[in-house]
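Weekly sync notes, structure subgroup
Attendees: PM, AL, DS (notes)

Item 1: joint prediction request from the bench team. They want all two components modeled as one assembly rather than separately. Inputs as received:
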Amino acid sequence: MSRDLLLRLRSWEGLLLACLLVVLAYNVTSVSNFLTVNNQINLFQLGIEKSIVALVMAFVIINGEIDLSVASMMGLSAAVVAYSFERGAPMPVAIIMAIGVGAGFGIINGYFVSVLGLSSLAVTLAGYIGFRGLAQLLVEDRSVGDFPSWFTYLGQDGLIGAVTLSILIFAILAVVGTVLLHFSGFGRRTYAIGNSAAVARYSGVPVVRNKMTIFMFSGLISAMAGVLITARLGAVRASTAQGFELDIITIVLLGGVSIFGGLGTMAGVLLSAYLVLNLRNGLVIEGVTGNTQTGILGLLLIVSVLAPNLAARAQERMRRSTVGPSAQAPPS
Amino acid sequence: MSDVLLRRIRPEQFRELILFFVIIGMLVFFSFQIPNYFDARSINRLTMTLVIPIIVAVGQVMVVLTRNIDLSVSSTVGLTAYVVGTLLTRNNDMPAVMAVALAVLIGLGLGAINGLIVAYGGVPAIITTLGTLAIYRVVLVEFSGAKTVTTADLPDWLNGVPSANVLSAGGYDLRQMFAVALLVVFFGHLTLRYLSFGRRLFANGSNPEAARNAGLPVRRDVLTAFTLCGGLSGLAGFMFLVRFGNITVTAAQGLELQVVAAVVVGGVNIFGGSGSMIGALLGVFLIETLQQSLLRWAGISEFVRDAVLGLLILIAITADAIILTRLREMWVRTRRRDQVRQQSPPTPEAGAADVA
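Output from the run, pasted for the record:
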């Protein structure tokens, strides 16, 4: 039992848990009522859109691709909501249009990546610039607000008790994501493609369909997150959600998902989403400004990939130094 | 006909030719749409806007050739511009050479950090430089304490540089800064074509595994490429200081996108292993000219810029993937047929004809 626990702790999730406990302990000791339900909900609420998109980004990266366009897609979807609302469309229609645009562009991304076989890095870089450009085209340099009160209410106030709609959606998506990734054929195919797309194809896995689906949902869920952030903030600018991709990708990679695909767990991503929230909170307590927080997150992003690499190399060297000389010694 | 063309021109050169004609087409189109399109003032202004992206693009090409990417360039430009600007403000007597050397040195250092993490830490370039993009910017914010460098505090010689000419004819100037940028492209081109380091960049990018097995110092070359890219960004940072004078903490933000876009549109393959400095130069020219022209074109919203840029990248990489693969196949087939024709022994009739 204790050996089992030790092994569990040596895994990436164990390390995350340890980090989380340290940061949590700091937060609890610095803020008197940190662990109250209301405070925890507030904490979640602050970065909820990023956490939501991180869930689908986990699928994208495990699949061996990357989607840099998510934050711009959030901005575009917010702009679509604002644009259509300004022109008199009823709010539900505006929301559906925004999410439709997200799914549509997700399919386009997926088409270029899976059917034409282009690098997802290049394709979504084009999306990163282009979607933000479309958002600028729609709302220009204005700030659009004055949405109906039920809409902003949904974004800001509790739906069930103090739990907001965004948190509810996050919880549902987390459960659905976990089931899909770990307990369904779709999830297993996603891992297989991430490990080796060629092997997956020769094994009869529908690679194109799988990638298309994932990119479509990446666009769709990003667009939904864009609608949620519009509801929470109550106003839209062309720069809404700018720079969020750094947080989102950091959450996923810090969660132990390999940037090379084929590796990672939903539990890790959820842990790291919570860790990042707590970390930001702790930094705010310490009086660190938002800009510097972003820098620390950037450092975290690099370290989360660098650390396992260096650890693996050190392990390799240790193994070689204990086995190597005796095995290679010439018979005398 | 196509055979003759294919024997003369490599597929990659086709790409540059196509780009060249696209640029000509664009210039002709806008010259009909915008009055005084080619007047001296706007041409001079255009060359000045080209300087910084061109210099950064040369570094970026080296990095992208090795199948990597450097997104941190804009923060490097901003940071060096600010640091050197601050030092010049404090000490107006600092010699010009030292200011430039300092900018390049800071850039080299920042680039080397990227290179070390990517080449020796095994962290993918996109992750590393997405991180350092944020980190270098934060260093700038912390360093600055939210103060700005202002033109008035800079030494006088610096403020005179932007309008200094190498030569001038009929109002059309060849500004010193633009000449430096062209020199950088020239030396970059020579490096890629004739230095063994340059040739190795292609080998590293087109197949890293094979390059390693062939004994090429892949890691060291990747480190060098990132370091050079940082150094050139440092030089661009100095140019930024010279050109704008007023440097805030957001200096050069977003430049990385323009440069990556230009390099990709210029036909440098994002998967590494293929591309040229001339292509990148054309790419920068196309994107910058298009942006300037769209701003001047009365018939269109100024907010259309980034949307067009995104579309342009998408078109460029798609065209690259579809057209170039076909072209390359045709080129290889033609070559192979030529080789077979040369190697096959002469037939008896041909031999007899020769004797006769």
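Discussion: Residues 326-332 of chain A have pLDDT under 50 and may be disordered.
Action: AL to compare against the crosslinking data before next sync.
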